[in-house]
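Handout, section B. The chain below has 249 residues.
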Amino acid sequence: MNQIILEAKGICKSFEGSEVLRDISFQVEKGEFVAVMGQSGCGKSTLLYSLSGMDSPTGGEVVFEGQKFTDLSEKEMEKLRLTRMGFIFQRANFLKNLSIEDNIIFPAFQAGEKSRQKIVKEAEELMERMGIMSVADHDIRKVSGGQLQRAAICRAMINHPAILFGDEPTGALNSSATKEVMDILEKIHQTGTTILLVTHDAKVAARAERVIYLEDGRIRDEYRPGSLEDAKEGKREKTLDDWLAKMGF
């Protein structure tokens, strides 16, 4: 039996009387790669924030690794996000006064579970894998968007999270940098890390094993783009495009 790592149970979210999420329920299996799509304003990012504990739903329940968010104190929730979850956003949101490497290792120092020597060693191993070791000591304003987003992935992975959340992680990148970042995320997924990301890009969503389509704050449908062999032949993206067209995307 597959292990469930994340579960949404009847999630609802309202802002000033307006319903943004409406009775959303689904499960994410450990090691699964899930993409969430939908028109702008459908509630994609709000759903991701609710599922990751960055925001609280106004109704329903989120369960992560068997723990209900409602059973955790604010301090326990912060610790959970820091040590068991990784985050990649459209913009890297790095601290401007720190170098690339210092930004990457910062979450590990916050967690306080490893020595400085071990943290630096793991950060350098990540940067080597991501191909950015040469810019480790650079100012964040002196690297390319693709390099910055790869550094953001390093930062997200420094505490070995069980799940990686992405909110439009390629939204600010060109097609070449997007492919590079998605190649990296695919390799991370192959090591067993669960990934859940929000995207408007069918090329990005086609890398996922499952696509959830939101419409007006509800799940309208789900789709599995196809096998990895289909992906190599370009069929996976084509079948997803056809399905998205039926959704009116």
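Note. Strands lie at 4-15, 18-29, 33-37, 59-64, 67-68, 85-89, 163-167, 194-198, 210-215, 218-223. Compare this with the example in section A.
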